[in-house]
Each structure stands twice: as structure tokens, then as C-alpha cells.
Amino acid sequence: MSQFTILIVDDDPIMLSLISEILSPTYKVRIANSGQRAIEIATSDPRPNLILLDVMMAGISGHTVLAKLQQDKATSGIPVIFVTSKEAMADEEKGLALGAVDYITKPIRPAILLARAKTHILLQQAYAFLQDKNIYLEQEISRRMAENQTIQDISIRALAHLAEVRDPETGAHILRTQSYVNRLAKQLKNHPRFSTTITDNYIDSVTKSAPLHDIGKVGIPDNVLLKPGKLDADEWVIMKTHAAIGALAIERAEDDVELDVKFLTLAKEIAHWHHERWDGSGYPDNLAGDDIPISARLMAIADVFDALISKRVYKDAFSFEQAKDIILEGKGNHFDPDLVDAFIDCFDDFVKIALKYQSSATPVEP
User: Fold this and answer.
1) SS3 of residue 59 by DSSP
2) I want to staple 353 with a disulfide (CB 3.0 to 4.6 A). Which of 179, 220, 300, 303 is the partner?
3) Are the CB atoms for 283 and 267 separated by under 8 Å?
4) Is the pLDDT of residue 270 over 90?
5) Are 329 and 301 in contact (CB under 8 A)?
């Protein structure tokens, strides 16, 4: 006997006996003499692979039984063939519209019944096989995407730490500024000026990009980068080249990949222009206003805030409140006014981030 189970539903005991006799040599047969009983059997084990369902029955009709089976996730995938003495086209169309896979009329012809049953069981098995394959493929794709994402994140972090190794003052600066950018971007997500740009995908990409903002410092000579004090005018000119150096390095990485990688585009923007100022007095290109990419404007506030609250050899750390006041003073000249407003709105979260990733260079306030 086959491993496949067929449920026969009919309120006529003679018809149940006849169909069972035809099918039982080939299939495991279960029978139900009412619509309600059919629903009970269909939801119990062994679950039928196919249901032969009479349309005209006392109590619950075959159409109603099918509708209930379709509504239940556990039984909606079981193929149903209507078996009835009614030959009206409207009845056939109604059954197929409800989700039946086929329609057989009485009197039953054994060869036709066996052929239809075999066809639909095989189709159901093929469908189930494909479903299993699809689930496996989806899981495998998700696994590989997660693996690739992990590799990407590690690579970004490794590159970012190159700058950190060259510049010991950075400490947890990378983690803090990355978190500031993420929080500020989320604050601006529904802002009328930024809602079309700052989407969930954008926030994810700009957050990944943020650690690369100072990657260009690997190209700054030690006598400038590690000088224990303020830079003179000539040294400051050299230091400012780190923005262009970083952007060029990322651009070369883009060329090697030969694909449009969103986070690399944003990383290049951030590295190149996060020292630009809203009034055009920044560097390296003296960009002003909306000509400065949003990603760089986000990083500008994150980077300055963190620099203010961090101790350097040439300055003490400012308090969080002092840093907030300085950012506020830069509204409209150093920073995009709307970004400053957003910063003020989520200032408490900036403080929490600073304390979470604090280093010896970060003040601790009550």
C-alpha cells in the first residue's frame, strides 16, 4: 500500500464504500460521512495527501468544508477534488474558484478516479519538494548574506583601526561617533527635509560608513599626527590633507570592487567632507549648505561633539553641557541648523553613548 493517504468525504455510505474499494489497494484510505467529521480528520494525523469531497451533503456542504479547510493554515495546502453528481458548469466553476484542484462527476469511473488521484498527489509532492528547496535556499542565502555582512563589518572595523593605531588619542572615538551618527540620523528620519534620503537602508549604510571618517590619517606623517601639542600653520595644512587622502583610498576601493556599494559611497562622502562647514569656511573644498552631503553633515556634529568632550594634550575635556552650548553656537555657521535642532532633541542619548563607550579621554559626569 502507498504511503499516501486519501480522505473520502460523502454522506452516502454506498459511495464511500465504492470509492474506498477503488482506492484502498493503492492508497491508505480514511473516510468521513459528514462535513464536520471531514474537518476533524483533515486536521489529525496522518494528515491526508488528497481529499475527495462530495458537494451535496446533509449539514455542511462540500463548498463550506473547502472554505473552512482553506482558512486553516494546517489544511490549506491539501489538494481537494470535488466528487458530485451535479454537472452544472456553475457548480464546477464555484468549486474551482474556492480552491479545488479538480472536479469528478458521478457515476465514478475507476480508471479516471485513479488517474486523477495519482496526478494530484504527485503534483502535491512536487510542490512540497519545491517548497522545501525554496526554504533551504532562503535559509542558505540568509546565512551567506549574514556571513558576508560579518566579513564586511570586520573589514570596515579593521580599516578604521588603522587610523586608531596611528592616532592613539582616538580610543573609543570610532564607536562613539558611529553611535552618534546612527542616533542623529534616526532623529531626522521623519524630518521633511531629509525623509526621502534618510531611510532605514540609508541609516544602516551611513552607520557602517562612519568608522572610516578618519581613515586618511594613515597618510599623515608621524611628526604631524603624533605631535604633543598644537600644530603650527604648515603642520595644519598637512593635517587637513587627511580628508582627501581618505576619500581617495575609498574611491580606489570602489574601483576595485566595480560595483555600486552604497556604504562605500557614503564612507567616501564622510571621509572627504566631514570637516566642511555650513557657511563654506571648512575644508578641503569650501562646500556650503546643501552642497555638503547629509552623511558628512551628520558626521560633522558627531565628530566635533566627541572632540569637545575628549581630553587632548593641548586642551582639557569640555563638559557635556559646554559641548552642547558650543554646538548650539555653531548653528547656521558651522552646522546645518536642522541637524543642530535634532542634536539638541537627542542630546541626552549622546551623553549616554559617550558614557557607554567612555575612555580615559572622555569626562564622566554625574
Assistant:
1) coil
2) 179
3) no
4) yes
5) no
Contact 209, 295 (CB under 8 A): yes
pLDDT digits (tens, 9 = 90+) for 127-176: 878 877 877 788 878 777 776 666 666 666 666 666 666 665 555 788 89
Domains and CATH numbers, the chain: 5-135 (3.40.50.2300), 167-356 (1.10.3210.10)
d(CA 275, CA 299): 9
**C-alpha distance from residue 315 to each of 228, 280, 308, 309 (Å):** 11, 26, 9, 10
Cα distance from N-terminal residue to C-terminal residue, the chain:
78
Cell numbers standing for residue 326: 558650543
46 upstream amide cis, omega within 30 of 0: yes
pLDDT bracket for residue 363 (50, 70, 90) = very low
The enclosing H or E element of 271 equals: helix 262-273
Closest-CA residue to 361 (of 193, 107, 174): 174
- Provide the grid cell at 132: 522545501
